[in-house]
Design brief:
Blueprint: E1 2-9, H1 23-36, E2 41-49, H2 60-73, E3 77-80, H3 86-96, E4 99-102, H4 103-114, H5 118-132, H6 140-144, H7 156-160, H8 164-193, E5 198-204, H9 210-217, E6 235-240, E7 246-251, H10 261-266, H11 268-275, E8 279-285, H12 291-304, E9 311-317, H13 324-331, E10 336-338, H14 347-357, E11 363-370, H15 375-384, E12 386-392, E13 397-404, H16 405-410
Parallel strand pairs: 1-2, 1-3, 3-4, 5-7, 5-8, 8-9, 9-10
Antiparallel strand pairs: 6-7, 11-13, 12-13
């Protein structure tokens, strides 16, 4: 269904870990994106050049080669692993006779496929219209023949043919509605803050296994799929730690290299759950050859949304896919918890690490005395903490227990000397 082109400009100078992305690895990732969007990939091509062609991105000769390959494969769609300017997109479509989309449009399309809640649909439409607005000039003929498929999902043909003023009005309306959602979230967080319950957020590269881990830790039953961005609408569930403390765990949308800025802005209300979390559980795919680059990309997005100073617990997932030697190498990283969300390996160690690092409502060891008739308070100690020793007398029940500080404050009159 499509011919994909990865353009790899050669640039002098040094680069960080995330700045250098193996071209073949990037092309493979684009192929996964295309499949997640519903495309059937029939051919791929990789180009390395000193500078990008301002008119066609790839240059006239390469474009002719792509055109011939597309015709031979009977392809009707070209996907480029590089953001195209409106002029480049129009020129390539005119020369190739195929519809042309770039990496950003594919990601937007996947988000449109997976948005289930009203909030998610509003956020995707805002991102799509913000991306498409500067690309409408001179595209009347092309838009009129689009009947569906990658790059056309979501707002639809009618909205894309609106004049700029009407589109801007729609963008304002979407923004106002999302601000209302944001205000609603802030009110919910304010109500939660009156109760000392910590919030944790799962973050990581797309397809790192966050949803599988979420299902392993909670009875949520959210969709866990190998498709990219299978989780779009956030889900939160309570999780009980070994200390009997309860926390609120959120599953969030996965990040990716070059995540479109329009998406980050549109999903600001959702991503605030990450910013407000007391701890971030950064999940990495330990079996991926690009694990280091993926981790750095996630950290870049966290910095962009203002969450770079959050407490982070690093988790290497999918260790069941590693060789014994690779596992030993990962164990050398003392700041990382090794797990397999699929098999459950390492989950007890993960819960213990969360319990140990969490500073909200810390655990205190106390000695308490209750009258036998104060069964409700006794039950609160058993439900919210760990009873280490109990002594029953005729007029007093004495407990030695580890309980959250909030419960200690509530039971201060029952503290024994």
């Amino acid at each position: 269904m499509g011919v994909k082109s990865r353009i790899h400009p050669r640039q002098p100078g040094s680069a960080g870990v995330a700045d250098f992305v193996d071209p073949q690895e990037s092309l493979n990732e684009l192929e996964e994106l295309a499949r997640s969007a519903g495309a059937r990939v029939v051919a791929k091509t990789l180009q390395s050049r000193e500078r990008l062609d301002p008119a066609t991105l790839v240059g006239r000769g390469k474009l002719e080669e792509i055109h011939r390959e597309a015709a031979a494969q009977n392809a009707d769609l070209l996907i480029f692993d590089h953001e195209l300017t409106p002029t480049q997109q129009r020129n390539i479509e005119r020369e190739s006779g195929c519809r042309v989309v770039d990496r950003t449009q594919v990601i937007l399309d996947i988000f449109a496929r997976h948005a289930r809640t009203r909030e998610g649909q509003l956020q995707v439409e805002l991102a799509q219209l913000s991306y498409l607005l500067p690309r409408l000039t001179g595209r009347g003929v092309e838009m009129s023949r689009l009947g569906g498929g990658i790059g056309t999902r979501g707002p639809g043909e009618t909205q894309l043919e609106m004049d700029r003023r009407r589109i801007r009005r729609r963008i304002r309306w979407l923004g106002e509605n999302l601000e209302a959602v944001r205000a609603q979230r802030m009110r919910r967080r304010s109500r939660r803050s009156s109760v000392p319950i910590a919030t944790l957020a799962l973050v990581g590269y797309t397809n790192a296994g966050k949803s599988t881990l979420f299902n392993q830790l909670t009875p949520a039953g959210v969709l866990a799929s190998p498709q990219m961005f299978a989780t779009l609408d956030p889900t939160a569930r309570q999780l009980e730690l070994p200390s009997r403390r309860r926390v609120l765990l959120s599953d969030t949308v996965g990040f990716i290299r070059n995540l479109p800025h329009t998406l980050i802005q549109a999903f600001r209300a959702t991503l605030e759950e990450v910013v407000e979390a007391e701890m971030l559980l950064l999940v990495s795919d330990s079996s991926s050859p690009s694990r280091a680059q993926q981790e750095e990309q996630v950290e870049r997005v966290l910095a962009e949304i203002g969450a770079s100073n959050q407490s982070i617990l690093r988790i290497s997932n999918k260790v069941d896919l590693l060789t014994p030697a690779d596992r030993e190498a990962l164990r050398g990283r003392g700041d990382t918890i090794l797990i397999s969300a699929r098999t459950g390996e390492g989950i007890p160690a993960l819960l213990a690490a969360i319990d140990d690092r969490l500073t909200v409502d810390p655990i205190e060891r106390v000695r308490l005395c209750f009258e036998p008739r104060e069964g409700k308070m006794l039950n609160a100690v058993y439900e919210c903490g760990r009873v280490l020793h109990r002594e029953d007398a005729e007029d007093c029940v004495t407990l030695e227990a580890e309980i959250p500080r909030s419960l200690v404050n509530h039971l201060r009159d029952h503290l024994a000397n």
